[in-house]
Amino acid sequence: MPVDELARVDATAACPKHMEYGPCGGVGFDGSCEIDAAHAWPFVQLDTVRWHGVVAERSPRPADPVPEPTPSAGSARVRALLETRRIVVADFPARALDARSLDDCVAEMAGTVDAVLSGDAGPARVQFAPTYRARLIADAGMLPFIGVNCRDRNRVALEGELAGLAHAGAGVVHCVTGDHTETGSRPDAKPVFDLDSTELAALARAAGHLVSVGESPTTPPVDRRAARLREKEKAGAELCFVNHCGGADPVARFIAEARALGSTSRFIPCIPVVLDEGSAQLLRTFTTLVLPPGYLEGILRAADPREAGIAAAVELSRAMLAVDGVAGVDLSGGAAPGRETAHARDLAEIARRLEDAL
Fold first, then answer.
1. Judging by DSSP bridges, how do beta strands 266-272 and 115-118 pair with one another?
2. Range 222-243 burial, b when 16+ CB lie within 10 A, else e
3. Mean pLDDT value across residues 322-330
4. How far apart are CA 145 and CA 166, in angstroms?
5. Tens-place pLDDT, residues 179-207
6. What 3-state DSSP class applies to 297?
7. What span, in angstroms and rounded, lies between the C-alpha atoms of 289 and 44?
8. How far apart are CA 143 and CA 87, in angstroms?
9. CA–CA separation, 200 vs 177, rounded Å?
């Protein structure tokens, strides 16, 4: 076995998430592992792992025959929308396991926000399954972008979710490796990580979905993040959510680096939405968060933090939308407990103020 292949196998074995295509976005700024800060992330020192397919631990037995996948109706709807204009996506603020909260939030945003990104609900680990969330959101009148993680399900269960999501109305499947169970509300749960985000992207594309992934330009290895995105594109990704990296200039640099490597992705940068101390606290839980200088402090010190937060999100969104390659923005963050519906209303207000820029 070649030396570089041995190093990759060793890194996969050492990684707490057993990633084939590491590193994830949870690397500390010093290159440390999010689970064990005393140890360096095993993939940081390796060259970018090239796409070589979904790796099986054992040769699978012949599967039962299944119909050939066709592009989902939701993905066709999103593709048509993206050909028309840039879009506003919002992190879905509804409470986990609360269908009434989901309906209330959709009622505030429908017709203004184009789609909601529904993945892990803040620090909560227990929530409705992705397929059921997609169906609830679609039935309530909203276009769902559904986050699917590799932490909680093995590849067979993930394949089932992907098949279900094609029928449930998902416009986009957002593929993430996922935070480890040792973070968040359920450290007692056993982590799975049978696949990682790159492998999941390939399965989602094969199931007929429009696939998005995330990338973190300011997370080590900074000089290879664009190259990692290219490998995700080879697996099947077409949209890239750019995690919080400090403003429009870092996003523009990252897109330029990716384009220089041949990237064809559409980019959707994350916009930090801070309206009060509660939403600020939730945002601070994001791994390796980088905000524009003074962004958080300026909002929280304002006489009216809500209005200051809305204005700041609009201003930053306009700057992002001026960057070549940006297909829309993601109003990112979450609500303080008890403010889910009000937060959804504020997200709709940000989208309304952005209408001219779109």
1. unpaired
2. bebbbbbbbbbbbbbbbbbbbb
3. 98
4. 12
5. 888 877 888 999 999 999 999 999 999 99
6. helix
7. 18
8. 12
9. 8
